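User: I'm preparing a small set of examples for a lab meeting where we compare how different chains pack in three dimensions. I only have the primary sequence for this one, and I'd like the structure in token form so I can line it up with the others. Please keep the answer compact; I'll paste it straight into my notes.
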Amino acid sequence: MPEQLHAIFDTIKETLIDLSGAREPWKPMSRPAIIAWLVFYLAFAAYAFSKHGEFLFIDTANMVVHEGGHALFGWFGPTIGLWGGTILQWLVPFLLAAYFFHQRQPAAFVFCLFFFFENWLYTATYMADAIAMDLPLVTLGDPEFARHDWNAIFTSLGVLDYTPWIAGTVRFLGWTGMLASIAWLASRLRKPGVAAAGEAV
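Assistant: Understood. Below is the structure token output for the 201-residue chain.
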């Protein structure tokens, strides 16, 4: 029986690898392009760090997707609708990253992955406000019925008192993912498949 389960898991793993396109080589990037992207990501990371948990300029776009998630998932009930803002906000860049991973396009893959994790910083800021509720609320409906997502979620889960720890953990994971994305792109500089300047990026 253990051998049969092992064979099944191996088959599933191999199928997933085939479907993901992971066996195919990454498309080449020129060294100058990699360096330019690294400068961009490091500059953005420095900017984000300097804000000390405040909202970033790109969070306006995140907020639009977030509110769209409430509207979309709200069709399936109030509970999933409440979670839907964050679900869609995380799901969009994640699915784009998965698509570009399958297409083996490193620049687009890292861009989507980096900003997938940047969304965690946005979420952490919103989470951290769950007790004080000082942030202005944005809603697609009547402002009088607007509610703080994470105050409602944490209250329903009975974890409101753990707000600082949860928000801090999400922020840490977001930064870890962003820096890991940068490190992966930097590792491409050492790959033999990196194209010389003037070749396809």
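A couple of notes for your slides: Confidence is low (pLDDT under 50) at residues 197-201. The two ends are 49 Å apart (CA to CA).

User: Perfect, thanks.
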